Amino acid sequence: MINLFKIKGQKREEAANAVGRGNVKKQSAGELRLNKDISELNLPNTTSICFPNGKDELMNFEISIRPDEGYYFGGMFTFTFQVSPSYPHEPPKVKCKTKVYHPNIDLEGNVCLNILREDWKPVLSINTVIYGLNLLFSQPNDEDPLNHEAAAVLRENPKLFESNVRRAMSGGYVGQTYFTRCLFGPPTR
User: Fold this and answer.
1) Beta-carbon contacts of residue 84 (< 8 Å; ≥ 6 apart)
2) CA-CA distance, 175 to 168, in Å (whole number)?
3) Residue 112 bears catalytic tag
4) In sequence order, what DSSP letters do the residues of 29-86 get, joined into one string?
5) Which of 50, 96, 112, 182 is catalytic?
6) Rounded to whole angstroms, how far apart are CA atoms 113 and 41?
């Protein structure tokens, strides 16, 4: 029985080569879905996307968010997305490249967003994740933190939290941690 399948597979391959399609890379289901998601992106005007390895490698890309309100107004934050071939059955891996003082993003760039973990469902899309990341900047969540210190300051002293965010975004120390400047002014419209 196995030999029969092997012979059928060889015949299909020979037929594909005869038509001249033998060297075309077959896309995984994840790549097909990601192509669809990217073609349907509806990015907020505060968000941009780029493909550092070129449009041929869609499974790894970056987005930049420039919040136009809230504590993080005027900053620019870059996130890397690594999408697995089994997407959408597993969420993309998202990391923040910009060191940020934020209750839901730790100093290593890990992001605490429920739809990237336990609440992920295959019906969600890259667009949903991008909107979720934007929401983290307009409404930081002190109840489900990765950076417990920042969450405690937000909860107990919002004015100090705002001052710490400004100091970090301007390029400076918050406690013993140095943050590189990421403050660039308001987003262009």
Assistant:
1) 30, 59, 90, 92, 93
2) 10
3) yes
4) HHHHHHHHHHHT----TTEEEE-TT-TT-TTEEEEEE--SSSTTTTB-EEEEEE--TT
5) 112
6) 20
CB burial readout 27-37, b (16+ within 10 A) else e: eeebbebbeeb
How far from 10 is each of 3, 4, 20, 180, CA to CA, in Å? 10, 10, 15, 56
Q: What is the CA radius of gyration of the chain?
A: 21
pLDDT in tens, 150-171: 999 999 999 999 999 999 999 9
Is-cis flag, bond preceding 88, omega within 30?
A: yes
- From residue 21, give the alpha-carbon distance in Å to each of 9, 11, 25, 87: 15, 14, 9, 26
Count Cβ atoms below 10 Å from residue 54 Cβ, excluding itself: 7
**Cα 77 to Cα 65: distance, rounded to the nearest angstrom:** 5
Task: Tell me the pTM.
Answer: 0.83
